[in-house]
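TL;DR need structure tokens for one chain.
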Amino acid sequence: MHYGGGAAGVSVPGMSQARLIEIEAGILSKNDAFADGNRRVLRALGAFAVNLVSSPGSGKTTLLCRTIEQLGAQPLAVIEGDQQTSNDADRIRATGAPAIQVNTGKGCHLDAHMVGHAMDHLALPRGAMLFIENVGNLVCPAGFDLGEDAKVAILSVTEGEDKPLKYPDMFTVARLAILNKTDLAPHCDVDFDLYEANLRRVNPGIEILRVSARTGEGMEAWIDWLTARLAEKAAGAAD
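>> reply
TL;DR here they are.
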């Protein structure tokens, strides 16, 4: 049985596909307006924003802590999204970086209005990096533009090589995929070539990095990617 085969990509008993499309368009149009506002603020600052998306337990927060440590004096800030608790924001603040915790309650993703409100409290400096750690979920966050410059999808090597095929929407919109926890690969029979082939099957243009936040493998390439994207953004803001 497949309930996502209609024009809306979803099925709700008693509701037509046309009505579902109408509802979705209304929700997304409001979100997109807030996202455009966030984008204007970031562009004026020459700031680069990354939307980190993944399943729960992929290692987003640990990777982010290591990233902050390696970026050193680079101005940055973090918006943490979770349904409940401030655990992740507390971990980020322990690195010395400013962080705002956004709790979504029963909501399964951050939206652009939440992010804009958090940005108001962060007072981003010019040339900053803004990391948005979304709620752990590979479904809902794919459809919501937050005003970011790039979605970065993080996959733990333990999740299975077919994950991009099961959740294609997320990997279609991601600019970069990070295969995280590579230090565990010898213990779980990982086929990296199949992981990458499946990622490119759903998104031929996606960039891919192999990283271990624990051992440091691949961290230099990740930091280089971030600094290069920030430089591109700053150059565009200066034009």
